[in-house]
Amino acid sequence: DKITDQFENMLRILVSLVFGFHLVVDVRGNDCPHSWVDGSFVEMGCIMLNANSTMNWEEANMYCNTSHNARLVEIRMPEQLEFLQMELEMLEEHDGKKDWWTSGTDVGREGIWYWASSLSLVQDFVWSSHNSDNGITANCLYLRHYSVSYMGWDNSCSSNLVPICQIK
Questions:
Q1: Long-range contact pairs involving 103-107 (C-beta distance under 8 Å, separation at least 24)
Q2: pTM, to two decimals
Q3: Sign of the alpha-carbon torsion through 25, 26, 28, 32
Q4: Residue 131: predicted pLDDT
Q5: Nearest to 34 by CA among 68, 60, 10
Q6: pLDDT band at 21 (very low <50, low <70, confident <90, very high)
Q7: CB-based contacts of 143, cutoff 8 Å, min separation 6
């Protein structure tokens, strides 16, 4: 049931925090593909953090879609952002600091940020305290590692960052 699933996910996170690694074997056998992170307890489905490949935003969209039948991640609730921040901080210990693409964009709607995967508006809690408007050339939202603990920043879509893919 849902409470058991949430408990098991919280247990996995606790083990990750205490021992500094992810459990390779999920005791409950979740529905996520191998090497994907189960984010269902925060209504995110399955998340893949591909720290090995950098690509521009359009390539990241295509990578998630064609290679994994997924999409770039969207963050709809503060709990989802906190979950991703925790996962990225743990991954940072092994792979170093990286900047991560999301599906957020304001392409064609300057200053009106939306999730390309659903067309829902990006909420304010995603953004760092910096202004989310670096002009008409910064149209893609990424989670920035530098001094802001993986909060949202806008950037040129041609920058090479790593994707976060999502299957809901």
A1: 103/61, 103/71, 103/72, 103/73, 103/74, 103/141, 104/74, 104/75, 104/140, 104/141, 104/152, 105/57, 105/139, 105/140, 105/141, 105/157, 106/139, 106/154, 107/139, 107/140, 107/157
A2: 0.80
A3: negative
A4: 60
A5: 68
A6: very low
A7: 84, 85, 88, 99, 100, 102, 150, 151, 152, 153, 164
